[in-house]
Description:
Layout: H1 29-35, H2 41-50, E1 59-63, H3 69-74, E2 80-85, H4 88-101, E3 106-110, E4 123-129, H5 137-147, E5 148-159, H6 168-181, H7 195-208, E6 212-226, H8 227-235, H9 242-245, H10 249-263, E7 268-281, H11 287-302
Parallel strand pairs: 1-2, 1-4, 2-3, 4-5
Antiparallel strand pairs: 5-7, 6-7
Amino acid sequence: MSRLSGDRGISADGLPAANFRAGAFVGLAEDYVRYRLPYPEPMVAQILAAAHVPSAGGRAIDLACGTGRVALAIAHAFGEVRAVDLEPEMVEAGRREALRLGIGNIQWSVGRVEDFVAPVGGFDLVTVGEAFHRLDRPRAAALAFGWLAPGGAFVTLGAESFLDGEAPWRRILAGVVRDFVGEPARRLGAPNAPLDQEIADQESAIRAAGFTAVSTHGFGAAHEWRLPELLGNLRSTSVLSRAALGARHPSFEAALSAALLAFDPSGRYVETVEFGYTVARTPETADRTTTHATHRNAHDRDQ
């Protein structure tokens, strides 16, 4: 298997890097549901407060929803949530989780974010969880701007990569990963960049869509991983899933387990997981109408 290029998220054949292609999450929905850490409840509460969510009957859209980590976490605060993702298996897993949790106000859809259709000005919040880097960001942000009511909020959520983190064992993990796959691409159509540059680029794309009051906030949460959980978390990624590594997957897990157990035989690994979110708002004044018309007309020209 070829290594995953970190150069603009493009492979040697000119296509998106393997971890950015359609189907990159095939076969890993079960691991995603079971082993991805939920967004911390206090952070979700901060987001809902910052978004000025209506007290009742609000509407939200969760873009690139995956198995519904964001949609399921915010559904209690809205009358309706629409969730869309490119991967059918992920959407179906989200439906099952909603049923298990007794959540019935989410409308699930399969499709590209960039092609999603929703009523103009009909929503109070649009979210993207750990996926804005996978999208055509200018188009996704402009679409979100159009869907939001005046004063509505656009929020992107994220967590640090499995290659990052300050814990010594995390650096051992990163070394084993790079031995197997090289430096994975982290952004579609752009070179990998330090976190501060990535945040600045993201905020720039959001402002260019017409949003105001753009700000980014960090949120740390302590977590103790046990080795099986950590391996499952890595299997939930587009880089280290069973499908992505193929026949090399057992040897990868064996090598990583040996390295981590040599560092700490207890099989328990503590760290502070760094989450974060960027929140932006649509103008509440008449200026928004002009801005929205500009972006809508730009889309009409693109089509």
